[in-house]
Design a protein that fits this description.
The chain has 435 residues and is mainly α. The chain is built from 17 helices and 6 strands. It is 49% helix and 6% strand. Bound molecules: acetyl coenzyme *A. The site of acetyl coenzyme *A has 17 residues, from loops.
């Protein structure tokens, strides 16, 4: 028997049967329940989408209470241990792990698209010397739509795949150019002999040597960090990607919007904020006073808490292990001691326990990135490179989903009722109006 929910309207005594599918009711079914004479029916009010499923998706599964994260059914722990970023990217996009031949072709396709048009390089040269690399990244990804005008053919399968290859392949090149620009060093062209992350390190850090040889431990650590950040279902930036993409704009424009959403300190900017916070705390002795401040409502413990995870973020566990491997090569980040003690104290504190606040993926990622030689300003850019595959996979799934239309939430209007235009000399200023 189909599951239903019976709602009794106390005002009229009428009963309504709503079908329950996949643990949800259709918001549109509520329209049957009339609120007034002339209305479109009952709606839900859900600021920040706290309890609204906006799509069906087969890509990523999260159980926030149990701390489970699966890409296409595969546990993140197994992928971090055994997969590579490019193989995981294939899995996220196409739904299955590739065979050896499929992976070879896929790697070849991505590798063949790593270069960017020389005019993109020139375009990037126009940014101020101290421009934030994330601002440069967002603008440049958006500008790709002017170079690849076939990107508009979003319902042509071949064209769509071409744009996906271009995006995954070119974001590291753009990110590296943005970084080199910010430190005033010449751009380094991609080296197609190297792996995805090895080449990225080459474009970032190559100096005068003829051939850059990435440190294999750091190359692997970066690959693992990219796997961990590849997708995370309907988060702020992915919702932005889907929402912008639902207008049927090209994927470069949509991805620039998603990257902009990622830039904020509550999302991809969190690891940068963590490092600033650790620096501000300065020493282990200052931690109790800092925690007291946070509990008093003055600021947040950055890198803690998550909308979905109400237990330890599974990615944070893997990252802690990766941190040890990186620090063996680079030496310990001096801020690590503060981070470990901060985590220990917070996890024993009533305030954090009752609110189920645990370290998220970004609590330790910044410490690793910094130890690897990345500037703090590059952190959100690194996140954007890894998340590009999630964004394009979710974008494509949205485009092919017959349930989807242009995204357009409702509102509850709380403004003035209809009133007549007032002539200038009859207006009285409102007390709180800007002068
Ligand atoms: N430090 C202190 N208190 C916190 C924190 C924190 N980091 N996070 C949440 N709280 C408190 C809130 O003050 C609130 O307390 P109250 O009930 O007494 O008012 C309660 O916990 C619930 O918080 P909300 O803001 O309602 O939780 P929400 O799900 O909206 O926020 C978020 C999730 C944005 C991640 C939040 O935990 C936060 O700001 N964390 C710090 C920023 C951060 O690390 N972001 C990275 C997220 S992971 C990522 O994007 C990859």
């Amino acid at each position: 028997m189909a599951e239903t929910l019976t709602i009794t309207d106390n005002r009229t005594g009428k009963q309504y049967e709503l079908a329950i599918t996949d643990g949800t009711i259709r918001a549109n079914d509520l329209k049957k329940i009339k609120v007034g004479d002339q209305d479109g029916g009952l709606a839900t009010y859900d600021p920040a989408f706290m309890n609204t499923a906006a799509c069906r998706s087969q890509i990523t599964y999260i159980d926030g209470d149990k701390g489970i994260l699966l890409y296409r059914g595969y546990p993140i722990e197994q992928l971090a241990e055994q997969s590579t970023y490019l193989e995981t990217a294939y899995l996220v996009l196409f739904g299955e792990l590739p065979t050896a031949e499929q992976l070879r072709k896929w790697t070849h396709q991505i590798t063949m698209h790593t270069m960017v048009h020389e005019n993109i390089k020139k375009f990037m040269e126009g940014f101020q010397y101290d421009a934030h690399p994330m601002g440069v990244f967002i603008s440049t990804v958006g500008a790709l739509s002017t170079f690849y005008t076939d990107g508009k053919q979003i319902f042509d399968e071949t064209s769509r795949q071409r744009q996906i290859h271009r995006l995954i392949a070119k974001v590291p090149t753009i990110a590296a150019y943005a970084y080199r620009h910010s430190i005033g060093r010449p751009y380094v062209y991609p080296d197609n002999d190297l792996s995805f992350t090895g080449n990225f390190l080459n474009m970032l850090f190559k100096m005068t040597e003829l051939k850059y040889q990435p440190n294999t431990a750091l190359e692997r650590a970066l690959d693992v960090l990219f796997i961990l950040h590849a997708d995370h279902e309907q988060n702020c930036s992915t919702s932005a990607m889907r929402s912008i993409g639902s207008s049927q704009v090209d994927p470069y424009s949509a991805l620039a919007g998603a990257a902009a959403a990622l830039y904020g300190p509550l999302h991809g900017g969190a690891n940068e904020a963590v490092l600033r916070m650790l620096k501000e705390i300065g020493s282990v002795d200052h931690i109790p006073a800092f925690i007291k401040r946070v509990k008093g409502g003055d600021g947040r413990l950055m890198g803690f808490g998550h909308r979905v995870y109400k237990s330890y973020d599974p990615r944070a566990k893997i990252i802690k292990r990766t941190a040890d491997e990186v620090f063996e090569v680079t030496g310990k980040n001096p801020l690590l001691e503060i981070a470990l003690e901060l985590e220990r104290i917070a996890l024993e504190d009533e305030y954090f326990i009752t609110r189920k606040l645990y370290p998220n993926v970004d609590f330790y990622s910044g410490l690793i990135y910094q130890a690897m030689g990345f500037d703090v300003a590059m952190f959100p850019v690194l996140f954007a490179i890894a998340r590009t595959v999630g964004w394009v996979a979710q974008w494509e799934e949205m485009l092919l989903d017959e349930d989807q239309k242009i995204a357009r939430p409702k509102q509850i209007y709380t403004g003035a009722a209809t009133r007549d235009y007032v002539a200038m000399d009859l207006r009285t200023p409102r007390q709180d109006a800007p002068s």
